[in-house]
Model the fold of this input.
Amino acid sequence: MSERSGSVSTAFLERRLADIQRQQEQLKGGGGDGTYDGMSEVDAKIAAAEARTDTKFAQVLGRLDGIDKATSGLKATIIITAIAAIGVVFGAMAFGASQFGNGVMVTSAAVQDAAEAKRISEQNAADLAKLREDMSKLVEAVIQKPTP
Done:
């Protein structure tokens, strides 16, 4: 906004409208200034239109000032909401990282348990194979021994 449009008040515009209306009345009287009567009427219409435009512009500026005052707290609300949202995101990420770490530890323990179970299973299989071999030898020895 220019400095002039920012400083236009309703009172100023009302005074300007009154001045233009006075000028219109003077022009209607016919001052004999050598201008065509139709020209002074055109000038008066232009001046009246300008006054109406200035008045409406002042009203719009007043409304904009009202909107600016009504939304002044909105900026703070938006900033606080954004900060809170960022905090929630970081909190969720920290919680996820913690749970991921716990999952890694559980997985690591499960892998260790599985490796231990496999080792025990292999040991049992070896022991079982040795027992079968010993049993086979015993059965053969019993079969080959003559009965008395």
Observations:
- Residues 17 and 138 are 130 Å apart (CA to CA).
- The two ends are 129 Å apart (CA to CA).
- Residues 1-72 form one domain.
